[in-house]
């Protein structure tokens, strides 16, 4: 099946389309069974820095590893730079015989090797675009199907020779996500980093050529990270591969996370709120036809994940009010669709009416869950060795003297100098009394989220609800007019808290409202 990629400028070129293999359901069931048996042998061949395809590994862990190195280098007054590369047509370049050889070397059981060879051989393809299809099928001699559950795992096994021993390339870190590679270099200057990354990129290309793979130069990008207050600019030294010169890129996207030279979440929030807004716009006709409860659930399942994806990466420091403005805007738009509220309604009240979290509790919830996931990493995971109670004391010292990341103790406070320290600060009250914290139980995390991150507006059961406005106590012509005005307002879906915020209250408070302050008598 040929599917056009969204956002491409020219759809007359083949690269603007994605090929998806439509496989039988029974075939995918068998592939899942085979994948479960082959993942047992993953530690034999896959590098710990190859994050997907294994339980307890997440693509966001690669961002934690990169930013941990970057922040530590910045505290050591060192400069860091990253080179991002993408393998051109990754799944279509897999040679079947080479894949069987790599699996045999890494002690995969013979029947699994034979099954994979039988699965990949004698494959036929027939291309269709929805309106027409080829009259005949074509035999495929190389490659793996892109729509298969086995695809990413088999490609990781195939590319595993490139992923071991990053010291051979002269870089400080190399992480992978399927066909995306990131090489990180740290030194005393950006110029030295550019020279190191040029040599490492050329060496990696030579090794990839042995497996029939080639890196796409059009998707190769360079990003220089800041060093303390020294921010990178566009005219910094770049890298060179043959006749192609690649300069410093001020914006970068890696595993769905956007970041720039400032390492602030502004760019990431803008990009993902735009995606969430597009999703909400397309779902609006359907949401208006649903009951409020069902509309709220649909927004939580579609819009909220797009709005908050990768946000935990930036919870090392506080996200300020200016950076939260796009989240406020789209949460308010989603809540208005559910409740039919006013344009100038108070944000926390309208979110509570729609059964949605307010912006800051939502961000805090992402931070807590992200910190809990870091504690849930297995001992073989590279993040596990960087947890404060596992790393050596020398890791915390700057130039052998200044201790910018103190050892993890109950009285440590908020040590936000390093990436993982800053993330774990979000659940510090849960783990500060434990010498070496391990996996936190899910009920404990849920109780902590309810206690520390949700406000009273977010605790209303079974939202949305509609409350009538308060009736005035005045009598006479003025009181009658105000009573009629309140009766007209009550016919509109109006969440409690909006009317008191934007219309003048008349008469004393009856004290029976659990959502307002007890001392509010105006």
In brief:
With 522 residues, this protein is α+β, with helices and mostly antiparallel strands.
Keywords:
522 residues, alpha+beta, 4-stranded antiparallel sheet, two-stranded antiparallel ribbon, 14 strands, 40% helix, globular
Give the helix/strand layout:
Layout: E1 2-4, E2 17-19, H1 25-38, H2 42-45, H3 60-75, E3 79-86, H4 96-105, H5 110-120, E4 123-125, E5 138-140, H6 151-158, E6 173-177, E7 180-187, H7 190-209, E8 221-224, E9 239-241, E10 244-246, E11 251-254, E12 257-260, H8 266-287, H9 292-308, H10 321-339, H11 347-354, H12 359-375, E13 397-398, E14 402-403, H13 419-424, H14 428-431, H15 442-452, H16 476-490, H17 498-502
Antiparallel strand pairs: 1-2, 3-7, 3-8, 4-5, 6-7, 9-10, 11-12, 13-14
Distance between the termini: 65 Å
| Widest sheet: strand ordering | 6-7-3-8
Strand residue percentage: 5-15%
Q: Major beta sheet, specifics?
A: 4 strands, antiparallel
**How many E-type strands?**
14
Using only CA atoms, what is the Rg? Answer: 28 Å
The low-pLDDT segments are 399-416, 453-475, 490-522
Q: How many helical elements?
A: 17
Mean pLDDT: 77
């Amino acid at each position: 099946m040929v599917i056009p990629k969204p956002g491409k400028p020219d759809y007359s070129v083949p690269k603007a389309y994605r090929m998806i293999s439509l496989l039988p359901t029974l075939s995918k069931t068998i592939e899942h069974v085979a994948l479960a048996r082959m993942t047992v042998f993953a530690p034999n061949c896959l590098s710990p820095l190859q994050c997907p395809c294994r339980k307890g590994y997440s693509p966001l862990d690669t961002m934690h590893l990169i930013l941990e190195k970057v922040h530590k280098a910045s505290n050591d007054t060192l400069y860091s730079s990253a080179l991002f590369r993408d393998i051109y047509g990754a799944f279509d370049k897999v040679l079947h015989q080479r894949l069987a050889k790599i699996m045999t070397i890494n002690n995969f059981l013979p029947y699994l090797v034979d099954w994979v060879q039988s699965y990949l051989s004698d494959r036929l393809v027939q291309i269709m675009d929805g309106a027409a299809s080829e009259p005949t099928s074509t035999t495929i001699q190389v490659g793996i199907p892109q729509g298969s559950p086995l695809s990413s795992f088999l490609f990781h096994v195939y590319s595993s020779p490139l992923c071991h021993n990053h010291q051979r390339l002269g870089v400080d870190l190399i992480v992978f996500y399927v066909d995306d590679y990131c090489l990180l270099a740290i030194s005393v200057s950006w110029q030295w980093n550019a020279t190191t990354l040029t040599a490492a990129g050329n060496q990696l290309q030579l090794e990839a050529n042995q497996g029939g793979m080639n890196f796409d130069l059009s998707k190769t990008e360079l990003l220089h990270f800041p060093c303390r207050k020294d921010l990178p600019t566009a005219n910094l030294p770049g890298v060179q591969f043959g006749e192609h010169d690649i300069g410093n890129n001020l914006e970068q996207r890696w595993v769905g996370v956007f970041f720039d030279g400032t390492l602030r979440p502004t760019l990431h929030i803008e990009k993902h709120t735009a995606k969430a807004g597009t999703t909400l716009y397309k779902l609006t006709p359907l949401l208006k036809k649903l009951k409020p409860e069902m509309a709220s659930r649909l927004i939580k399942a579609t819009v909220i994940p797009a709005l908050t994806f990768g946000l935990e990466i930036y919870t090392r420091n506080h996200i300020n009010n200016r950076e939260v403005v796009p989240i406020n805007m789209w949460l308010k738009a989603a809540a208005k669709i559910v409740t039919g509220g006013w344009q100038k309604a108070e944000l926390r009240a309208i979110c509570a009416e729609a059964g949605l979290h307010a912006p800051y509790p939502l961000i805090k919830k992402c931070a807590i869950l992200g910190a809990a996931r870091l504690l849930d990493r297995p001992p073989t995971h590279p993040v596990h060795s960087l947890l404060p109670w596992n790393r050596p004391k020398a890791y915390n010292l700057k130039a052998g003297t200044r201790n910018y990341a103190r050892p993890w103790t109950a009285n440590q406070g908020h040590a936000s100098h390093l990436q993982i320290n800053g993330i774990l600060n979000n659940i510090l009250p849960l783990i500060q009394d434990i010498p070496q914290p391990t996996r936190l139980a899910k009920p404990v995390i849920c109780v902590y989220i309810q206690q520390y991150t949700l406000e009273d507006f977010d605790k209303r059961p079974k939202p949305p609800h509609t409350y009538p406005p308060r009736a005035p106590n005045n009598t006479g012509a003025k009181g009658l007019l105000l009573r009629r005005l309140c009766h007209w307002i009550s016919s509109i879906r109006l969440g409690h808290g909006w009317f008191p915020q934007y219309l003048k209250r008349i008469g004393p408070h009856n004290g029976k409202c659990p959502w307002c302050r007890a001392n509010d008598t105006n």
